[in-house]
Amino acid sequence: MTRTGKIVVTGVSAVLLLGVLAGCGALKEAPSAEETEKAVQVEKQTADGERLFLIEEDTEARAFLDDYLNEDTYLDDGAYQVGTEAVADLAPECVYVVYQQDTVLAGQTESAGYTEILRYTLYQDSNVLTLSVTAGGVIQNVQESTGLEELLGENWLEDLVTGSYEIPVQRADYLKTYMLGAVQ
Questions:
Q1: pLDDT the model gives residue 116
Q2: Contact 132, 121 (CB under 8 A)
Q3: Residue 77: phi, psi to the nearest 5?
Q4: What strands, in cross-sheet order, belong to the sheet with 80-82?
Q5: Nearest by Cα to 127 from 89, 175, 95
Q6: 164 and 145 Cβ atoms separated by less than 8 Å
Q7: How far is residue 176's CA from residue 120's CA, in Å, rounded to a whole number?
Q8: CB 41: neighbour CB atoms within 10 A?
Q9: CA distance 109 to 29
Q10: What is the dihedral of CA 66, 69, 75, 81, to 10 degrees?
Q11: Using CA atoms, how far apart are residues 174 and 183, in angstroms rounded to an integer?
């Protein structure tokens, strides 16, 4: 190869390398909140766990949560927190379960599904509602011989963030009788 040919090949290679490096270093626009927000679903179940309905569409599920199960909403309606002894003798009537879209991990092209994150329990002959956080606190790894092996699989977070509230009777009755698509 001639000296001129080597210079041309070297120059073209340098330009291509700079182009690749420039593309790798280009600033990307930060994703919007909507792009990073995980989808949610809301399911109503009987006390025995039988599904009564499932709101699968994210915007509908979020609207339902905001309108009926948002803690600020029922606290603004005059709800107040009650102790665990207030629910000890109550029988569950229905449960609203909130699921959140799973995180897409490295190497995955799409989410694997949904995970339960919240549980709202309403009780028979009562206007008490219990809110439990059900995901995120499961103990998965305990070093042997620490005396904590029996905690594997336990949800330490649930006990910390479970609260029971006496909510207005009208709201409790509405949530107990609410059926998706039915005129209330």
A1: 86
A2: yes
A3: -80, 5
A4: 51-55, 40-46, 92-101, 114-123, 128-133, 163-166, 80-82
A5: 175
A6: no
A7: 11
A8: 18
A9: 21
A10: -150
A11: 12
What residues contact 6, with CB distance under 8 A and at least 6 apart? none
Distance separating alpha carbons of residues 46 and 62, to the nearest angstrom: 21
Residue 85 DSSP code: G
pLDDT of the residue at 13: 46
Angle, vertex CA 32, rays to CA 31 and CA 34, nearest 5: 120
Mind listing the pLDDT tens digit of every residue in the chain (184 residues)? 554 444 443 444 444 444 444 555 445 555 554 556 789 999 999 999 999 999 999 999 999 999 888 877 666 666 677 877 778 899 999 999 999 988 776 676 666 688 888 899 999 999 999 988 876 544 444 444 445 445 545 544 544 567 888 888 988 999 999 998 765 5
pLDDT of 60: 95
Number of other residues whose CB lies within 10 A of the CB of residue 123? 21
Given a contact cutoff of 8 angstroms between Cβ atoms, the answer to whether 129 and 121 are in contact is yes
Q: Which runs of consecutive H residues, i.e. helices, occur in 89-155? A: none
pLDDT at 2: 53
Per DSSP, the chain holds a count of helices (H) and strands (E) of: 6, 7
Q: Which DSSP letter does residue 30 get?
A: P
Count the Cβ atoms, other than its own, within 10 Å of residue 131: 19
Dihedral through CA 29, CA 34, CA 36, CA 38, nearest 10? -170
